[in-house]
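[agent] plan:
  1. take the single chain provided in the ticket
  2. run structure prediction with default settings
  3. attach structure tokens to the ticket
  4. add a short note for the reviewer (M.T.)
[agent] executing step 1
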Amino acid sequence: MLGYLSLACAALFVVQIWRSYNAYRVNLAAANQSGIATISTPIYAFNRFWLITHRLWEPLIKLLPKSYYETWWDYVQPDFIWNHKYETFRHLDVDLLMVVTPGASTLWVADAEAMNQITTRRNDFPKPTWLYQGVDIFGKNVVSSEGALWRHHRKVTSPPFTERNNLLVWEESLSQAESMMAGWIAKDQKSTGTLWTVATEAMRLSLHVISRAGFGVRLYWPHEQEDAPIPEGHTMAYKEALETLLENIIVLIIFPLWALKYSPLQIHKTTYRAYTDWGKYMREMYEGKRSEVKEGESRGGMDLMGALVKGAGITTESLNDQADAEKGGNSAKQLLTDEEILGNAFVFILAGHETAANTIHFSILFLAMKMSSQKRLQEDLDHILGDKPISQWSYEHDLPKLFGSMCGAVMNEELRLLPPVLGIPKSSTKDRPQGLHVNGKNYTVPAGAYVTLNTIAIHTNPKYWPHTSPEDLLEFRPERWLLDPASSSNPSSTSTTTDANANAYEAEADLDFDQTDKRPDTAPSLYRPPKGAYMPFSDGYRSCLGRRFAQVEILAVLAVIFKTWSVELDVSEYLSDADFARATADEKRAAWRKADARARGLLKDGMMTIITHQMRSGKVPFRFVRRGEERFAGLV
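[agent] step 2 finished; step 3 output follows
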């Protein structure tokens, strides 16, 4: 019996190898006919099993002769895109690359013209929705849907993301930034001392902003208010449940809910508790909003939950209709189910807070490493805001100036170097190949191929960016966004300033985005890369709904911080405060260089993507000081 079983297993293994080989031959033949440069690997890098277990296989694979794996090993690493950026394309002298495997072929794109075509041809290059099943925790939503279903979700979710609602985002961001700084440093102090929690606090700030501006729930900093009592029927406070849920989101994505519910592991128990509790809070919020609508009440402001309820067709009339009431469930006139409304509400918070928080955190880090850029930012803030107290800062008058100044340049440069998503996933239609016309040549993307819009590669592609050297493109230099016709590094003679590029931006205005903001990601007064070359919020039909929300929040927070404060890399690990007071300029400079080298090391090797790209294997300590009290002025 055992012999038959072994024989059957061996036969199945042989059959699987044969199927994989045949699939690879088919994929390779289609790739060879595409006109696109190809690389072959035996493993599809984004296979979920491989993503989870790849570190287990590495020592076994590397027991083989190096010639067996050296040509493809780098390409199957989950962090390949971040580690190599544009270097692979530079080495192969291409901007389109097809990676062929037995499981699938993937087109990697680092060309602006191709990216622009792919993002505007929504039906030809749909989103591979299976990659987003993990965010369907509470229900289907605008991020995880495609085709007619996506169109339906987009129409319902778009209305609140308009210019008229961003005033509330501005005001709440200013208030929360002030509160964050007040928690770090008292009015009579000149320095915060060592701060290790800036990344965490930026997440908290952004969560506070979207919770208040989007859902009307005011969250407080620890120094503002003691923890509120846990409401009846809950085991966690609203804030604790939401923060715990977001911190452990990868656990929810990987493990099914039933496994978390019965697992003996504490992290699983805590995650399931947070999921259950915050789900209750959302449903209570939803039911409260339905009650408001039923009574004909409404509140001002952005009110994302209210917009979802109204956009779903839930009206005073439908809720008071006896026939609908007797059904006890979704109204026949309701355009989204209750689960879809909750799913969209959750994904707004999930996607909305991480992008802004990461940009704030890494902007602070880069500015601490580049004090000259920080000083120029502060000079611009002084020019724009003068001596006005924060309460008098104007959304209408001051925000456009911030967007078009060094403040906007800092935000843009951070998003260039650290886009929220390093590779935006698309696919070609399963039933037919798709053509691309790039740089005067025709290419064919095979049917059913995956497409990765390689944002970090195109953001460091020298064809599209002002730069002084290849290394300069990997450095934080926000000044590259400031238009200066006298500067030789400004590529005024390249295609970036041609009429064709201007026409590409104008053409976007004719697309139907269902009332969302259609303006370019950068201000007219700053450098504007070619259409498709700058993709921090994606582009075209599937561009980020909350783009303007995030930009307003980021600019407001940076303005609050750097109008009054300077940030420095903390060097206390290398030079104590007591020793610093006695240290020579050279000793201070040496300590700063060590702190800078550590930060650069974490930026290179400590980054990982779960939902967004973050520093996950370490932290960088900072020190905020009042302007004029900088400890490294003139030294770095």
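[agent] step 4 note for reviewer: Confidence is low (pLDDT under 50) at residues 485-516.
[agent] ticket updated
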